[in-house]
Amino acid sequence: MHTITITSSSLRTCSGGFVRLRPAAAEVTTSLSSSSPIHQVSSGITAKFYSNSTSQQLIASSTTSRLLSVSGFAAAASVCSRNSLRRLSSSELHGSRLYSRSFAVAGLAHQLDGSSGSAVLRALAVPAGFRSGRPLGVRVLASAALGILQGGSRMASSHATENPFGSLLTDLPKPGGGTYGKYYSLPKLNDPRVDTLPYSIRYLLESAIRNCDNFQVLKADVEKILDWERTAPKQVEIPFKPARVILQDFTGVPAVVDLAAMRDAITRLGGDPDKINPLVPVDLVIDHSVQVDVARSPNALHANMELEFGRNKERFAFLKWGATAFKNMLVVPPGSGIVHQVNLEYLARVVFNSNGVLYPDSLVGTDSHTTMIDGLGVAGWGVGGIEAEATMLGQPMSMVLPGVVGFKLDGKLRTGVTATDLVLTVTQILRKHGVVGKFVEFYGKGLSQLSLADRATIANMSPEYGATMGFFPVDKVTLQYLRLTGRDEQKVEEIEAYLRANDLFIDHDKSQKESVYSAYLELDLDTVDPCVSGPKRPHDRVSLKDMKVDWQACLDNKVGFKGFAIPKDQQDKVAKFTFNGQPAELRHGSVVIAAITSCTNTSNPSVMLGAGLVAKKGTELGLEVKPWIKTSLAPGSGAVTQYLAKSGLTKYLDQQGFSLVGYGCTTCIGNSGDLNEIVAEAITENDVVAAAVLSGNRNFEGRVHPLTRANYLASPPLVVAYAFAGTVNIDFETEPIGVGKGGKAVFLRDIWPSSEEVAEVVEKSVLPEMFRSTYAHITKGNEMWNHLASPKGSQYAWDPNSTYVHEPPFFKTMTKDPPGVPSVKDAYCLLNFGDSITTDHISPAGNINKDSPAAKYLIAHGVDRKDFNSYGSRRGNDEIMARGTFANIRIVNKFLKGEVGPRTIYIPSQEKMFIYDAAQRYKEEGADTIILAGAEYGSGSSRDWAAKGPYLQGVKAVIAKSFERIHRSNLVGMGLIPLCFKTGEDAESLGLTGFERYTIHLPDIENIKPGMDVAVTTNDGKKFNCVLRFDTQVELTYFQNGGILHYVLRQLLE
Ligand code: SF4
């Protein structure tokens, strides 16, 4: 613990709008203590605080009768600001400089790192945060307080106040004596509403209580959460401060690029680059880059890793630099595992104990399947890169307090039914019910029948069923899993003690007060059938027994999610070819890819070992997988390899082509690699609807492989079964899967293991030591990673020739003071969209088209077409991402009158050209641009480049019928103006053609209000009002600063 003392003389020096604190008047002391909070009295103000390395929780008190603020600094600031406030004129209060600074203060007091005595310097290094909806007066207090910093003192300030829930801090006793630490006790609230809150909401409540400072998190926010039953239906917003952030390499690279660019910017502006660091633990797992270039070979792992390193050397070297340059950042090297599986097996803390304060683990991640960790009772979900960066930098997330759907599970899965069957069933049920934007919480006696890995499989697919997260509260099964995966026994005991004490642990075998939910669903596990999902969507579940009928209907049906419209006379077409000297053939439904992939399943020993058992039984009966099927096994951690080896099943998987291809995402993310040329030719020349069967979680057309029009999600054992069958056009009940030894027909039931058999192998083969040794190894890196040269130093030495990592221009012209409100005058309409423009339309992640502006850039930089890689892998290079913005070949722009593709009309000359080229022309001429759009602009996965890209193309505003929630906040985060047409209006009803020039009449900053009406006029005399979609005061501040990162940077400079 530190103690900071501020002399009272410092409190009398406030003057005018900018409060000055004479350096000599300030006396700052820090000390460390392991005991209870210290009250060090000095001239009237005393501060005390705890700090912890993740949330920088700060608790303070004042010896004055009024509790003024969180810390001694803050107390001083608060008193000063009260004095000065009386003398501030309204224009001063709103002056841009003062206004911008008004947000600088809050975070400072939160950043004191307890690890050393240099707390004050660290305090000064930290960004402020600001809570949405803050009344102006509070901002003013902060503004005034900030003057303390300007006076040259090392003092920091905050207008945060003492945590009003400090009295809830309670010792957590250890059995046998002593304590684990302290925690904010929910039972001590003594509020009966807590007892019926869903567990997932209790996590939000605990966080709000612990972080309550009446600045970033208000007491009123705590009340909103407590009153969840009444407030959630009203869509109220609350702040949430996750305990950590997780990244994968596709999305992690741009985040680290931004941090590196911020270091350069702060240096240019006279600040200290070392101030730029994540403030919460950040784990980055490099898993998205490996492709299945080589398969069905004992050398596949090594060969694919070599190719992966060759293709991604620059990105990997950059991330390796980041791992050493930034504090609080762990980088898990490529070839180690899949992000969510590594999180589950190794990274998850479940309960943090930071400097003696215990609290539940929670996180946000830049991958939609971050939700997998909810299976372990860790609250987490996917966000866009901009939100993740803000969380890293200490900003609270603003989120709508969600409704919670209670999903009761009863009974037990029948023998032979897998967790994958269950998750596909659950996905279908929840999709049908509609859970978008909600939490789903699983409860009921059936939970005790589900292993932790089964729960994680269900939690993983939250994005597919549309929920923010699918949460499983911690119970005995969770603790068993922690032990199984080699977690320290004492830590497990601490986790249990804390969660039990805080009413966050559940005993399914004991009677308890049931939580109240917003809606109730129920599933009897006995009713779940083996199934697959497809051929184009994860929630189109097909019971295995109906598969053949369903497939044949799909051939008939018109083109759509369940149809290929193959004429009757073409349905029996056979494409014959020769493969390695053998006669081969493909028909509609022939399997050409069979992949055991995706952390959804690879983290689940029962289905992985189940796949091994199917391979073993099939092999023993004489079945063989056809050699032209691209089979692969890509586990999410080395532990899988170890338990498969111990079970003796690896050799059967190898024999059937399921040899190890890498530890990474592979087919799940579409990194399936090329099909054999002969197979690809047979498919394209004969227009065969070829099939992929994979144990992944998404199967939209084009995602898995461009040549597999049918893609089925299935459990790993079924992936092996379909590989044996060679087709999805099969009724496993009545048709043999193949012909075995002696010409005997072999059926699926002959090779399908019972649940008991699987459980026995799991019991014997999966051992804690395997997880311990796997992760001990990962922390040491691997040969390729360790030999990879990477730059040193706190600032990154950008290579101007790199086509992967490039310094973005976001901060290059940044000034110390905010630029103020930009005008948007006589803007051209760059794009005129209809409804449902997705983030994939705006910023595609896949192939770089050979004729696109990005391709031209790459060729001009000496990159061969074969080395283009994907947009996803090049997210660290703004030059390519700006060119890739709106480069989706399926984008529909009304200007083009039905023509599909990434082009637009350059209005001054009426020429048709690539969107990027038109945007550049407008920029060169100094002309503003806007976008017109329909409903749900920016739906789909949250993607930071979908906001960064338009920013780089010079777009100033988007006028849409409606926005996807996260995308709207990402636009604000980049300093763009989101405007909504008034209800019942759109471009068409207003007679807008897009060829007009638009002026947005924003008032001065002091008169801008979230959600206000703003007039828009056009050069041909049209006038209409739009709703300004800055939804909070915080967002206004971001906008005024030119974006969230600029805002944070300015706070650090202060
Ligand atoms: S395996 Fe699939 S779900 Fe898992 S992290 Fe990779 S892409 Fe995401």
Report on the structure:
- The chain has 1054 residues and is an alpha/beta fold.
- It has a 7-stranded mixed beta barrel. It has a 5-stranded parallel sheet with strand order 8-7-6-11-12, with helices on both faces. It has a 4-stranded mixed sheet with strand order 3-4-10-9.
- Helix 1 packs across helix 5 and helix 10 packs across helix 37 (1044-1053).
- The chain is globular, with a radius of gyration of 29 Å.
- Iron/sulfur cluster is lined by residues 287, 338-340, 367, 369, 598-600, 665, 668-669, 696-697.
- Residues 287, 338-340, 367, 369, 598-600, 665, 668-669, 696-697 line the site of iron/sulfur cluster.
- Keywords: Iron, Iron-sulfur, Metal-binding.
What is the count of helical runs?
Answer: 37
Poorly predicted ranges (pLDDT <50, ≥5 residues)? 1-159
Largest sheet: 7 strands, mixed, barrel
Number of strands: 36
Query: Largest beta sheet: what is the strand line-up?
Result: 28-31-32-33-36-35-34
Family: Belongs to the aconitase/IPM isomerase family.
Domain Aconitase/3-isopropylmalate dehydratase large subunit alpha/beta/alpha: 223-726
Cofactor: [4Fe-4S] cluster
Protein name: Aconitate hydratase
